[in-house]
Design brief:
14-stranded mixed β-sheet, 4 helices
């Protein structure tokens, strides 16, 4: 169930999380909205000066109410996304951060950077050199080390398909696809080895339909599915 409570770090921060297979929409004090994917947790900390969100794990879509005097900051992994009024998707999976801009502008900087000049739309001469500014349709991908790259033409419909109860994979590494599928089902999938985790998976699946996903892997790749007593399924390379 969705829970909202004071986080242990500070009484000012509200903590929300969704369970496996559960999605919810939060409406914040300024009418900004956060759509939480399954198995997702966020901290929400609003102050008179800033709107601060930490994505602890999972995925969320942010529809930010405009407030030029109060930047909206979302920290995930090693990155912070700064917005004034916009819509964007942020995902944290396997220590990688994915930021997809749907409309407006955002600036992406290293987590913990509270430089007040780091806001979208300012003169680029005022921005630190490591700040990336995104335009609609772009996706930033940052690895565990913080190194990032920008995809200039991301497929917004595919990336946000989770909001419609679908997962749309296009040559997705199986390891990442498994992490995403596991948000929606208590049948936990595990890649048997790195070679299996690197397989490129394509297709559209209903969220939570783990059996159909495993069946597709068996048909197209000939993998072996080992079913454990605890309900998990280990995906092994073809025999």
């Amino acid at each position: 169930a969705l829970r909202g409570a004071s986080a242990p770090e500070t009484k000012l921060t509200q903590y929300y999380e969704t369970d496996i297979g559960e999605t919810r929409v939060l409406t914040l004090a300024d009418n900004s909205k956060i759509s939480l994917d399954a198995k997702t947790a966020v901290d929400v900390d609003y102050t008179p000066q800033l709107r601060l969100i930490e994505l602890r794990h999972g995925q969320a879509f942010f529809d930010v109410a405009k407030d030029p005097t109060r930047p909206f900051r979302v920290t995930a992994g090693g990155k912070t996304v700064v917005a004034l009024g916009t819509a964007f998707n942020v995902e944290l999976v396997n220590d990688e951060v994915f930021v997809t801009l749907v409309e407006g502008k955002v600036a992406v900087t290293d987590a913990g950077d509270r430089n007040e000049k780091v806001v979208p739309g300012v003169d680029k001469a005022d921005l630190p050199p490591d700040v990336r500014e995104l335009t609609p349709g772009q996706r930033l991908v940052a690895d565990a080390s913080g190194a990032s790259s920008v995809e200039p033409r991301a497929d917004i419909s595919k990336i946000t398909a989770w909001r419609r109860g679908k997962l749309n994979f296009e040559d997705e590494p199986l390891g990442l696809a498994i992490e995403r599928m596991n948000r929606y089902s208590r049948i936990s999938l595990v890649a048997g080895d790195e070679k299996v985790a690197a397989l490129g998976v394509s297709g559209v699946f209903d969220t939570g339909d783990t059996e159909a996903f495993v069946e597709a892997l068996q048909v197209y790749f000939g993998v072996r599915a080992e079913r454990r007593a605890d309900g998990s399924i280990i995906i092994h390379a073809p025999a």
